[in-house]
# Entry
Amino acid sequence: MIVRELRVRDAADLLGFLQRYFPEEEALLGTRPEGFLEIVRRLFRWDVRLVLALLRLVRRPIFRFFVIEDGGRLVATTLLTFSKAAGYVSMVVVDPAYRRRGLARELLDRARRATRSRGKPFLVLDVLAANAPARALYERIGFRTLRATAYYVQDAPESLLPGPTGIPGIRPFDRRDAPALAAIAGRGRPPEVERVLPSTPRELTGSSWEGALLASELTAWVYDPGSGPQAWVSAAVSRATEAGHLSSPIVGPSVPAEAAASLVRTAAAWCAARRVPRVMTMVPEENTGGRAALEGVGFRSVIPVLTLYRSVA
Ligand SMILES: CC(C)(COP(=O)(O)OP(=O)(O)OC[C@H]1O[C@@H](n2cnc3c(N)ncnc32)[C@H](O)[C@@H]1OP(=O)(O)O)[C@@H](O)C(=O)NCCC(=O)NCCS
# Structure
């Protein structure tokens, strides 16, 4: 068995893994094989590879994708991406025939070391609250709960059409809004969450080349009663998934409930106009304003998730 990084020829195996071993997420997201394979191919175009190699050279990789291969077959995967203070782990999967042999533990250790050498103090991941084997694994290697969160879904988005227009205070997001909104988001978070996953303006603006890579159309709106932005939400559609996505909304404490709901409705209707069968988002428990706004336009909480973290030391 060898540990290495993902290659373009792994794409079909990887897709099979995600569809088979993440049934709950798959039911929400609905992976579109063609779009997914297109993204992986794009990732391996020589110019993208060159950028990634250069970033790695200056020790600023934007992601690492570790896999284990046995006799030419993909048997385990772990994706690592980076936020301001943490490495974020996802797609931890081991082929059933290879479980309980320490493969997941090995890949998580690679992720921990890669995060440490990138100068980030924490390793973070999300796990379905009902996924007992994965929770046992993470607990065993020192992860603790950072916060409870949940997937929310609105599965009749067409009912939101044509969507609100001309609501006073709602306007398109501008990059200059980001610092004020990040500060509002930060104030709403418990101190430990803010330490591990600090709110940053960059999180709101997104990086255009990541967006281009994920083949998604991305847009955002704010609620600004005239004194500056006080609420924000973004919406995205991707060729790799059936579902449309909203960000976890940022809702400042003085935003009227109807304004927050109109903001979320604007974003969900934008997705609906792109003919998605459902719209999903992941919202932490502490974001009470965001949850209320989502519920106000027909989103419901469907899958409880826990965000776990540990130090990389
Ligand atoms: C969760 C998963 C990745 C574990 O992979 P794995 O390679 O079997 O895990 P490891 O062998 O590295 O396990 C390390 C330790 O974690 C714990 N652990 C792992 N699987 C466990 C299980 N099914 N039940 C209880 N404890 C478990 C044990 O303490 C284990 O050590 P031990 O075997 O010496 O007792 C694998 O079961 C899987 O792919 N599941 C489906 C996809 C999934 O749910 N991924 C997690 C998404 S967040």
Notes: Residues 2-147 form a domain with the Aminopeptidase fold (CATH 3.40.630.30).
